[in-house]
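Hello,

Our lab assistant flagged a job as stuck in the queue for most of the afternoon. It eventually completed. Since we weren't sure the result was trustworthy after the delay, we are filing this so someone can double-check. Below is the sequence as submitted and the structure that was eventually returned. Let us know if re-running is recommended.
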Amino acid sequence: MDDQPKEGGEGDKKIVHTYALVKHSDMSDDIKNEAIEIVTTACEKYAQNYELAAKTVKEAMDKKFGSFWHCCVGEGFGFEVSYETKNIVYLFFGGNLAIVLWKCS
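-- returned structure --
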């Protein structure tokens, strides 16, 4: 009878990752690390407002790396985009929150 999970024990734990999990990127490491930092900050600050998080990321990237950055933040979406070579990152944050960040002029 010890095989039943006890309250507050292993059976009740839910793992939520608080770091960015990069699924695809062709950015240089410097730009990618800066982008991940910007995305993480925006997603933590605007956890309930994906549109505002995306706008914040886009404006920060435009300011730091020049114009024409685009960003989508959300859950359960697919995408196909045209982008400049070495200027895309697709990542997950906090479990199921997906972020696509790319540059296209």
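-- support follow-up --
The delay was a queue issue, not a problem with the job. The result is valid. Residues 29-45 form the longest helix (17 residues). The longest strand covers residues 97-103.
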